[in-house]
Amino acid sequence: MKLQHTLARSLVAVRTWPFVIDLGLACCALALFAAFVHTGEYWMGRPVPVVPISTSIWALPVYAFNSIFRIAIAYFLSLIFAVTYGYTAAYNPRIEAWMIALLDILQSIPVLSFLPPVVLAMVALIPGHQLGIEMGVILLIFTGQVWNLAFSFYSSIKTIPREMIEASRVYRFSAWQRFWQLEMPYAAIGLVWNSIVSVAGGWFALIACEMFTMGDRNFQLPGLGSYLQTATIEGNLGALFAGFAAMILIVVATDQLVWRPLIAWSDKFKFEQVEAADRVTSPILALLQRSRVFTTVPGRVWTSLEEPIYRRLSRTRECRVIQPSDDSVRGRVPPGLWVLAVALLSAAAWGGAQAVLMLHTITWPELRLLLESAVATFLRVVAALLISAAWTIPVGVAIGLTPRLARVVQPLAQVLASIPATAFFPILLIGLVKIGGGLGIGSIALMLLGTQWYILFNVIAGAMSIPSDLHEVAQIFHFTRWQRWTRLILPGIFPYLITGMVTASGGAWNASVFAEYSHLQDRTLQTIGLGAQIDAATDNGQFPILLLATILISLMVVTMNRLVWRKLYRLAETRYKLEG
Amino acid sequence: MPETATEKIVRKPAAESIIRAEKIEKYYAQPSQNRIQVISATDLEIVPGEILALLGPSGSGKSTMLRMLTGLSRPSAGQVYWHGQPIGDTEVNVSIVFQGFALFPWLTVLENVEAPLQARGVSAEERRQRSMRMLDTVGLDGFEAAYPKELSGGMRQRVGFARALVVEPEVLFMDEPFSALDVLTAENLRSELLELWANKTMPTQAVFLVTHNIEEAVLLADRIIVLGRNPGHIRTDFRVQIPQPRDRKSEPFTQLVDYIYKVLTQPDVPAPAPEPLAGSRVRDQRQMHYQMLPHARPGGIAGLLELLLDKGGRDDIYRLANDLAFEIDDLLPIVDAAQLLGFLTIEEGDAVITESGADFANSEILRQKELFRDAAVRNILLLRQIRRAVETKSDHTVPEEFFLDMLDEQFSEEETQRQMETAIAWGRYAELFDYDAGRRRFVLPDALEEEATAGEEAT
CB distance A574–B71 less than 8 Å? Predict the structure, then answer.
């Protein structure tokens, strides 16, 4: 009793706060609902390919909302697709290898090459509504987000410990129960971290594709990307900075309001035997967990929904008989998948034939130009990577070895890395024009902007992970500076450096499409490169060139992944792994 | 064999058994038409009212046997029946308690126990009641809202038991349930399990325990089956007649433990050779080309020999294990390895050191390596081959792949890896060859040194 009295104040807080939080949540829900209705009306309306864009700052919130909405829808589509794809691949050993190889190739195609075919297809599929154009853009963002999510889900499922699977089988879980109680929770952490990468990729694509020209058709959708591009074309610096600020605000807000709570929450899915000492904390999550509505309502709704499902499932054969697994015989492919596979194969064959016919029209000079462009872009990507590594390694190590500095700089680098490179471009472009530089060197600078942050924050993390006893060893034995770098620091950060370089290399290839060709005010800036070829082909509606350029760029990415990155990755995993 | 404590099983009529396995085998087909036999044709029955312990060294296929009997894994040949019906066609009511607990870390203790009931469509209310009752029974009341990672190992395994028992299984399977726990916790859980079983608090008709701990088997089981390996087969099957509660120090108890040790270390009576099927050759590992290397470290072999020498060169293996506080899974590979190298022989369950063994145990480290090298080259084909290969090749290196391919013919993929690891550990110790992990190649030790000095001179 006495204890309760002394705690009276905190008790009051506990009682009143949740109510306020509940109210706040309700308001948010209402606002979201209104926004959905508004967007729905706009989408179902007549198609307006070119929505006029105002560069007034007051128009910015609506544009930002439009863009966020596109990202969100694309993200949920990607999530559903990734889970379905990963699940199918993991449980059908016959098609598994094919599906993973396909994923590998799709992942290496730069997002922006998908633009024209996807938008045209969607406009044709949904005629008469704005939804067609919107879906085109959303699908494009989708292609920028989905692949790594699918990979993550697939590899999570493949690594579920054997005993856990056996437990779910001997206790006769249905596929439904196994999905929600074993597979999904096991994959959750991977999905959350990959979602962060994915959404950053989504923004990259979105900024670039809300406004574009294709042949004689113009498309321009209301959104942050169009706003930034319009501001660039008009040369309106004020608007440009406002848009850029909005972008940073969105990135930071997403980090604080969505990712941090999600990471903190997903901690309970960590598959570990002991509780970890340091965890990510999130005040937002703590706040939400105090809301009575939030903690009880979804759970109750969920339970009342799933009870009948479980009751029905328990009567099926799946839940009554344990199906013995054959470790010596491979699994059977269900007939539905065969039909699907045949359909896909014939579609691919038809598409391939069409493509060959299309490529037939390319002339020799065009081909030569394309090959030269390929070399130019390749050199540019390599240069961008080398320059990034050259400055980020010393700086990153210096920061990482000073814990106080690292605590400030690391989150900053992380935010910088998640700002889409495409948002940086307009600012840099204007700067370039002011000092009179061309795009030949300028595009390297543009790529750098997109790539170096990944390497930086990975190097910082790597330097921080080197155990202090190894530093002490270096000190005791009076290592020279050279020895310290070659024997301790470089091997120590190697795995992190490779992780950063791989992400950065993907980013650089993607950026090349955007960086080598640009409209500014009434001029078109351009340099020789595959990216420029892709952009120009899109602008002029030359599909054969677009197709060949895309094939070339994908080939280069795949080759580089296979020959360079994969080997380095293996080396990092076997030889330079610091723990056990 | 002590007559008082055991009795050979007299076959009971098949109708009584809950689970009956008929000539079940497990083998893996190899691309080259060979088969790797894991378990040779075996009959086994689980009858109501008994705790049956399956005992065997690692590699005898205990766990595989358990998975075939529960219907989790299909035998390569033969059939498992559940009350007379093929196990893949009927509703089977069994549970497994796993070595690694296999709890879902994202579910609370209560949710973990409720999950199997949910799969059976039990209503939410009843689910809760039954789970709470079972948590009470295993002594976990008050912990229902905790997450598994907040609990100690022993508590976690209690959750494992509660989850297994809540569905009221006819047969409770346990796959080395106590081996991940510390000694005291394990002892405590064992006696509680026995209590539940004796008081019939446990709604279970039979218990099937897989273990490599001989004392555990003798302590708990009404019947013990000892498996031999390469491939797995039943070596002996007998009933334990010591009344419960059993005293570890009593004469019949120690006699029985001793007897089982003898069975396990005796030169194996060849298991009935599986009949070769038309078209595919069956390779029994005893007719093979490469010996199966026991997974023991050279240091362990030296330690065992020194201990044995201390005891006058001859001792009972059971007593050795006791002195070392080792379980058979830890000790047998070392004994096997020493035997393979010709450092000791087994006579009547006693380990007897040989002349070369005594020489080895008496020497200092460099001489030990020399003796080990001689013994290894003399007795072990794989090491001899690797050494010869690195000696004869002009650049003194040979890729690991080459030997993996040859081992692959004989062993499963996993075993091939382990064989190679052991071979590398022995070869490095004996300085027969070195292994470059980065390039995955075997290297002649001197060649490696030369390379290193050459490299340093260059820089």
Answer: no
